Amino acid sequence: MTSFKDKVVLISGGTGSLGKVLTRRLLSLPEGIPRKIIIFSRDEAKQHFMRMEYQQKQGLTDEIIYQDFGRIVEFRIGDIRNYASVCAALDGVDIVINAAALKQVPSCEYFPFEAVQTNIGGAQNIVRAIKQNKYPVALVVGVSTDKACKPINVMGMTKAIQERVFINANINCPNTRFVCVRYGNVLASRGSVIPLFHQQIHNGGPVTITTLDMTRFLLSLDKAVDTIFSAAEFAYRGEVYIPRVPSARMIDIARVLIGDRKIEITVTGIRPGEKVHEILISDEEAWHTCIRGDYYVIKPMLPELLPTNASENLLNHQYSSGDNILDIDSIRQLLQQHNLTVEDHLDYDGEFLR
After folding, report:
1. Contacts for 338-346 with beta carbons within 8 Å, 24 or more apart?
2. Which of 7, 20, 147, 275 is catalytic?
3. I need a surface site. Which of 120, 286, 333, 338 has the fewest CB within 10 A?
4. Looking at residue 345, what is its pLDDT?
């Protein structure tokens, strides 16, 4: 439905792990690249390093900032929480990918209203700006998380409401298509478990595991971007796209990364707000979820948004990380495929060089 060719694309929270890979992929689309990619975030330091990386510069010079608005990738300082800032950023934009979020579970638990303001208020600011200013934004893709499914922590609760804010926006902003993507922790993204394991192994251990039974979905950054592209192209208004991906026990991932090294594994106990198994689709959602290619698609609950193909085959069970668990050899192959072994190098802020 949507092509990125010659479009103006805004990525809120674009300096994160997902935003970096998404930007790289947008700049290499075979059918044609966007006319402009706007990286919208409030962290000037992260924008500085991403700008240097994009321009292949070793140090800061005046021309890096002075020529910013004349380049395909534009860096815009602003805050998703601030309505005026969002309005200024959305003016002239064709496609919005909302990756701005407070996503660390403990941070959201201790500062719940901060999570509300970013994860819910930020989404509402996007919807409000489009509606009140009649911006001709064609598409908004909201990036959600498995923690939004049967949420037990603040991060998941706020992301679940963010999904509903965007889905409902299809009614109030009929000229804009709002869709969502939902997936688990992304391999090697900032704050995820594999960089933590690597640091612990480099430091000689111990490697910390919360419980021996804990499982998580395994998703690469490129697969996360593929999900966004598929939702942009094929999702009907109000649908949530979910990749069909394998999962693994955290203890097995740790053992693969440790290999023959004499490093101790310590069980620390489950943290507040954590689940043993994550869920991407609940039992209740399964009854209006269909399979479409490599993805599960949750249809909107609002009857006004149900598409004409509502008779697609539906699931009859939840989609949990406790299902389809990879064995040790499969985990090793997956980590090697994505260059995530301990021998890989880390860049300045704990993300893997790609």
Report:
1. 338/187, 338/188, 338/220, 340/187, 340/188, 340/194, 341/257, 342/198, 342/201, 342/202, 342/257, 342/258, 342/259, 344/198, 346/195, 346/198, 346/199
2. 147
3. 333
4. 39
